[in-house]
Amino acid sequence: MEKKIAVILGDGIGPEVTQQSIKVLNAIAQRFGHSFSYSFGLMGADAIDKTGNPLPDETIETCLQSDAILFGAIGHPKYDNDPTAKVRPEQGLLRLRKELQLFANIRPISTYSSLQHLSPLKSKQLKGVDFIIFRELTGGIYFGKKELSEDGSYASDLCSYSKEEIERVSHLAFQYAQKRRKKLTLVDKANVLETSRLWRKIVQEIAAQYSDVAVDYMFVDNAAMQIILNPAQFDVVLTENMFGDIVSDEASVLSGSLGLLPSASVGNKTALFEPIHGSYPQAAGKDIANPLGSILSAAMLLDHFQMNKEAAAVREAVGWTLANGFVSKDIDAINNYSTTAIGDLIMDHIERNADSDNS
Ligand code: IPM
Ligand code: MN
């Protein structure tokens, strides 16, 4: 198959981890007889430096003309410490999500037996942990009306949701649940927020169409606790934009490192694949960042192309590096491999195992 992939390297460690994914995708193309072409676009602090705009129109165009988008990371400390900055890197990503209508952000949380010692949780709690967070990505408080009074003494962010916005992501989450352990948990704050009550009402209605899926409802404060106390209870977690942002970082500690977690953002146009970690500026350019979050995002991209054997080959190679201690500094502070070395090991492993496809 021929596929066009838009690549946005972004900020911080974005470029170096994404380069490893490109190597891995090329190894997959070679082994399985596909042809992937890449078009690069600017976004984030990098784009502001070069063009003054966190998301130039050409980048949106490139994305729309591609079959999928591979994205690195966004953010730069010079903006984080300047709350008055009018142009910010994150605006690029938020606008891209909106322009491409990437309304569902899918974040799978898995655990690896060789990494259990890294999690602050006891291995007893980690047993059987395997869930997916469905985070609504183009609505809620992230995109509501923002205000700052002229004298700077008052600010407000509006949280709003429409029925349609809730329905489309909910249907997707229910469909995933049907293919998994058939359990869906809606995380909200329906005891306080009107938007959460609307979510609950709509999810209750939709649930009737998916009678094989067991639904439960959990307030977000309790969910934050349950993710640590009893994470194995979850299968599909459905939630609004900001709650999803927060609980997914929390859930990443179950895996042992934020550097391991991939995500897919899907909607009606081109889908986007990115690690859930940020730009990690302290590590930028040092070749020490964990590339697995990006490489596993590339595996999700292959699944999106219906290339399931190919995606499985990437995951197998990732599992092989973890099981053999070919890991980055976040996982092993003493015996570790560089970002590039891990990318090379995975690429070689995929090439080396090409024979198994014909057996
Ligand atoms: C994420 C990030 C983004 C978000 C930031 C960079 C805008 O934290 O993808 O989780 O808050 O959505
Ligand atoms: Mn986040």
Automatic annotation (TrEMBL):
| Cofactor names | Mn(2+); Mg(2+)
User: What is catalysed by this protein?
Assistant: (2R,3S)-3-isopropylmalate + NAD(+) = 4-methyl-2-oxopentanoate + CO2 + NADH
Q: Show the GO MF annotations.
A: 3-isopropylmalate dehydrogenase activity
Sorted UniProt keywords: Amino-acid biosynthesis, Branched-chain amino acid biosynthesis, Cytoplasm, Leucine biosynthesis, Magnesium, Manganese, Metal-binding, NAD, Oxidoreductase
* Cofactor binding: number and manner: Binds 1 Mg(2+) or Mn(2+) ion per subunit.
Q: Which residues bind Mg(2+)?
A: D221, D245, D249
- SUPFAM superfamilies hit by this protein: Isocitrate/Isopropylmalate dehydrogenase-like
Give the Isopropylmalate dehydrogenase-like domain ranges. Answer: 4-346
Q: Which family does it belong to?
A: Belongs to the isocitrate and isopropylmalate dehydrogenases family. LeuB type 1 subfamily.
UniProt source species: Sediminibacterium roseum
Q: What's the protein called, per UniProt?
A: 3-isopropylmalate dehydrogenase
Gene3D superfamilies for the chain: Isopropylmalate Dehydrogenase
Q: So what EC number does this one have?
A: 1.1.1.85
The record describes its quaternary structure and partners as: Homodimer.
Q: Where does substrate bind?
A: R97, R107, R135, D221
Gene name? leuB
